[in-house]
Specification:
Bound molecules: flavin mononucleotide
Distance between the termini: 45 Å
Strand content: 35-45%
Number of domains: 1
CATH architecture: Roll
CATH topology: Pnp Oxidase, Chain A
Radius of gyration: 16 Å
Order of helices and strands: HEEEEEHEHEEEEEE
Number of strands: 12
Length: about 160
């Protein structure tokens, strides 16, 4: 590998790319809710309405998410930093420690999110140590709240000065 190409440098540059934060949820075959914190989420297409995110093959719910027919993208609001941490924490009952409900489409929706996109799985593409999940948006909730930001492993909200 060339000197200028290594994992540390890659992580430094990617860590300096600010994102929002989402929690992606679904139900398994036993109707148990599953979810994880995700910042690889992005928009993909307007016609049809497509989004994408990627899941690490090491995540415990990997086999459920790569087979599920539908999932929900909960876009976290600026006051939901605790949910970002909760849904990235290992070996804990995540859904027992937050408020949520099942939507009409049978997907777990976190209370207080800035927005929710419910999706049906359009395509999955294995790539390296992750699998990309492409979803077709079938329902949209927009609460028009300020989003949670993630940058250099820190969470926060967009400062008021940004809008001036
Ligand atoms: C801000 C943030 C963003 C994350 N984004 C992703 C992501 O896009 N894809 C992914 O697979 N894991 C991502 N993770 C890590 C997962 O949330 C974490 O590995 C997962 O919840 C572990 O689940 P498990 O204990 O069920 O294996 C992210 C974590 C944080 C804190």
């Amino acid at each position: 590998m060339e000197k200028s190409i290594n994992t540390t440098r890659y992580l430094e540059v990617m860590g300096n790319y600010p994102t929002g934060v989402t929690v992606v949820t679904t139900l398994d075959d036993q109707k148990t809710p599953l979810g994880l914190t995700v910042n690889s989420f992005t928009s993909l297409s307007l016609d049809p309405l497509l989004v994408l995110w990627s899941i690490d093959k090491k995540v415990s719910s990997y086999s459920v998410f790569t087979k599920t027919k539908q999932f929900a993208i909960n876009v976290l609001a600026s006051d939901q930093g605790d949910l970002c941490s909760l849904f990235a924490r290992k070996n804990t009952d995540r859904f027992n420690q937050c408020e949520w409900h099942l939507s009409k489409l049978n997907l777990p929706i976190l209370s207080g999110s800035a927005g929710v996109l419910q999706c049906k799985t359009y395509k999955t593409i294995e790539a390296g140590d992750h699998t990309m999940l492409i979803g077709e948006v079938i329902d949209i909730l927009n609460e028009n709240k300020k989003p949670l930001l993630y940058h250099q492993r820190k969470m926060g909200e967009i400062p008021e000065s940004f809008y001036q």
